[in-house]
Amino acid sequence: MPLVKTGEGVEIFYKDFGPKDAQPLMFHHGWPLSSDDWDAQILFFLGMGYRVVAHDRRGHGRSTHVWQGHDMDHYAADAFAVVEALDLRNAVHIGHSTGGGEVARYVAKYGEPGGRVAKAVLVSAVPPLMLKTEGNPGGLPLEVFDDFRKATADNRAQFFTDVPAGPFYGFNRDGAKAYPGVVQNWWRQGMMGSAVAHYEGIKAFSETDQTEDLKAISVPTLVLHGEDDQIVPIDASAHASIKLLRNGTLKTYPGFSHGMLTVNADVLNADLLAFIES
């Protein structure tokens, strides 16, 4: 398998498709999934002539199932290790959900300082902060994430069925057309990863305040969010992020779910392409 070993000895699995001299697009997946969640985008952009790179976060998918380092700093450092190993330059970094937090930390800490990033995209992303606090009233109460932890610890396999069958793709909405294969694929990706990584990662995606990351980003950044996202509140994420970004553009989608990259791939791919080519 194609692997990059970090300075800590963690092996990060990656995919690298397309011409090596083409502009690279690097995709960062959400919790608790893997690079496979980007299949619709990988095929689309590969067909458009781009170099497409996607990796499995530590503890997820085919990367090393380590018990430590499940936080945004390590996630970003691991992404940087892949970028350096593949010598990606002028790259567009696209992150979904927790992967959006990874992108924000990577771009702010490594990508822009190293001159390696051209643009960024945050899709249904967790920044600046998911947790409800006095200064972030639009966030979710801590009890929500405690329930996530309990469900992950008690019966991860069932939890990883209930989430995609319900709120993740909006299949719990009246009149929604559910896709059993999409649910099964979500479950498959989740169960490939480590329970430790998934449990610890809940704190990373819910309690990491990335206000300063967003303020530090100056490259053009596209923020995309579904208006019926039942996982990441749009007010605490997209609407708050656009106020912090120096060069940001916001686009929202009425009725679209957290998993819109999969179930509405045709719409999202077209908008991603327009931004990348702009």
From TrEMBL:
Classification via InterPro entries: AB_hydrolase, AB_hydrolase_1, AB_hydrolase_fold, Epox_hydrolase-like
All copies of domain AB hydrolase-1, residue ranges: 24-259
Keywords, ordered alphabetically: Oxidoreductase, Peroxidase
A Pfam family assignment: Abhydrolase_1
Record bears the keyword Oxidoreductase: yes
GO molecular function, one term: peroxidase activity
Organism domain of life: Bacteria
Family recorded in the similarity comment: Belongs to the AB hydrolase superfamily. Bacterial non-heme haloperoxidase / perhydrolase family.
Protein name: Non-heme chloroperoxidase
Source organism of this protein record: Bosea lupini
